[in-house]
Every structure is written in structure tokens, then in C-alpha cells.
């Protein structure tokens, strides 16, 4: 009821506008997907069905929101770049984050059965969303380089280290990749709980795990990938090495403009035989770090 004594509470709802003329990057990330992928028996280290499902949900989002000019995904995360001039929802942060995250999640569930026909969903998955503003093209290029550097095939390794109990750690030590947290079996190891060959491996703390994740360079991750999954990084397909990049690509769809015009349209004869360019969302597995991708698509960063 207007003017009711309760209406004042609305004054507590504060606006949360985003700075104008800045790039928005929305990153969605699977919530507890380590457990989700175990429960739904994803193949490790990469499940191409799960990756394709993520791509499809991202495509649904781009179709619904023309302001998204680029998307990049790997593992259980996807980043979306919105053009600088986007006025979507009057640039209200919570509205953009909540609506886009919600649509992505519902699309993921909606299309689940198409990609996992024999695996019913055991429980509803969730994604968290965060939105970051960047002032210039340089930060955008660096952002997507950063995400691609931790490419799909290596993400499970990082996740394993981050979650690691004894087993992955044993692998790391066994293959002499990290050499931390392991000591020879002996009476001076009262805290030791797990044994592997001649080594005694102690569970490592969270801080140490984080340090390992951040300090493990690509070459070492490749070695872990082979040690743990017998997968040679160089033999993986492009999707696994480069992740998925979604862009809008102009195509000639063969549709005659004249067919869109009424019979009494004067311009119809002049347009006869020409085709109407149409934007189609395509999925690429390409390099985002070098200049080539960006030089070929200047419109992405033009605002
Ligand atoms: Mg993740």
C-alpha cells in the first residue's frame, strides 16, 4: 500500500551502478565442482561432454545478451566480456551478475540430458558469479591471457593440488616434481600418516597447497598430467589445450534482403540478389595470448 508506514524500508535498497564506459568481465565458476564432477563421473582430466555443455550454456547467454562480445571458458568456468558502452540493466551490478549467472546455470541444467543422456543429475549444480571492471584494452587482453594460461587440461591438476590429500601429493613427490612434504621413512617422522614406497608423505596444509598451485609452472604441470593420467599434453586436442572461445562472426546466410521487403517497397529491386550479413556465434579453440586473434577482430575491444 502506497504511503504505508512500512514503505520506508525501501530506502535501504541502495543503488549499485557500475562505472560507465568501462569493460565489464563477468566470470562464472562452478561451485564445488570437484565434488560435482566426481558424483557425475566426469572423465578425468577432461570430460568433453561437460566442456561442450559449458560451451552451449555460454552460447545461450550470448544469444540472449548482445552486449557480450567475447566469452572464454575452460574446465568449470566461463568469462564474458561486455562492451564498454553496454547499458544493460542501467549497469546495475547485482542485476547483471544475478540474472546472467542464473540464466547460465538454468541453461546448464536445461541442456544436461543432451550431453549426459545416461547420467541423471543427482542434485542441482550452482555457479558463482563475479563482475570486474577494467579500464582499457590492455587489461582485457591480459585478463584473457591469464585465464587461458591455466588452460583446460591443466585445471584439473591445479584443482587436485588445491584439494590434495595424500594421493595426489604422493604422485607429485613420487615423480620428483615437487619434492616437498616428503621425508624418508624413519623414527623421526611421528606425524607421518601415509607411505609410498620409500617415502613417508604427510598431508600438507592449505597455505602450502596454495603455494604449490601458484608456483607450479606449466612444464611441471605437463609432467604431473602425464604421471597422474598418462596423458601427453602435446597430444591433447585443441579444446583441452586452448579452452573454448566464443565470438560473433559475420556470415553470409544466403537470405535475400528482397524476401524481407514487401512487394510495394521501392528499394526492393535495387537490393535484389544481395545477401544480408548475419552474426553467428561460433566456438573456437584458439590462442588468445598472441596478437593474431585480436588483430582479426578489432570490434571486440572497440567498445
Ligand atoms: Mg573452477
Automatic annotation (TrEMBL):
Keyword Transferase on entry: yes
GO biological process: tRNA modification
Keyword line: GTP-binding, Magnesium, Metal-binding, Nucleotide-binding, Nucleotidyltransferase, Transferase, tRNA processing
Pfam families to which the protein is assigned, alphabetical: Thg1, Thg1C
Lineage top rank: taxon: Eukaryota
Family named by the database record: Belongs to the tRNA(His) guanylyltransferase family.
Protein name: tRNA(His) guanylyltransferase
Amino acid at each position: 500500500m502506497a504511503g504505508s508506514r512500512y514503505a520506508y524500508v525501501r530506502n535501504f535498497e541502495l543503488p549499485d551502478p557500475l562505472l560507465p564506459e568501462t569493460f565489464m568481465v563477468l566470470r562464472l565458476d562452478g561451485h564445488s565442482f570437484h565434488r560435482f564432477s566426481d558424483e557425475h563421473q566426469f572423465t578425468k582430466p577432461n570430460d568433453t561432454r561437460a566442456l561442450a555443455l559449458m560451451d552451449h550454456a555460454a552460447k545461450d547467454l550470448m544469444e540472449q545478451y548482445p552486449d557480450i562480445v567475447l566469452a572464454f571458458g575452460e574446465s568449470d568456468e566461463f568469462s564474458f566480456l561486455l562492451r564498454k558502452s553496454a547499458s544493460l540493466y542501467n549497469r546495475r551490478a547485482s542485476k547483471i551478475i544475478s540474472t546472467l549467472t542464473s540464466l547460465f546455470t538454468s541453461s546448464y541444467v536445461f541442456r544436461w540430458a543432451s550431453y549426459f543422456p545416461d547420467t541423471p543429475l543427482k542434485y542441482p549444480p550452482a555457479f558463482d558469479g563475479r563482475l570486474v571492471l577494467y579500464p582499457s584494452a590492455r587489461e582485457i587482453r591480459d585478463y584473457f591471457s591469464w585465464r587461458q594460461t591455466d588452460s583446460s587440461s591443466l585445471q584439473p591438476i591445479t584443482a587436485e593440488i588445491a584439494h590434495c590429500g595424500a594421493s595426489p601429493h604422493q604422485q607429485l613427490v613420487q615423480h620428483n616434481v615437487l619434492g616437498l612434504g616428503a621425508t624418508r621413512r624413519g623414527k623421526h617422522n611421528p606425524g607421518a600418516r601415509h607411505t609410498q614406497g620409500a617415502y613417508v608423505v604427510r598431508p600438507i596444509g592449505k597455505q602450502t597447497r596454495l603455494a604449490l598451485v601458484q608456483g607450479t609452472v606449466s612444464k611441471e604441470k605437463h609432467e604431473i598430467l602425464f604421471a597422474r593420467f598418462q596423458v601427453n599434453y602435446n597430444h591433447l586436442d585443441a579444446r583441452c589445450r586452448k579452452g573454448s572461445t566464443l565470438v560473433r562472426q559475420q556470415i553470409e546466410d544466403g537470405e535475400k534482403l528482397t524476401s524481407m521487403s514487401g512487394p510495394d517497397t521501392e528499394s526492393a529491386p535495387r537490393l535484389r540478389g544481395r545477401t544480408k550479413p548475419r552474426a553467428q556465434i561460433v566456438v573456437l579453440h584458439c590462442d588468445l595470448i598472441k596478437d593474431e586473434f585480436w588483430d582479426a577482430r578489432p570490434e571486440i575491444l572497440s567498445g
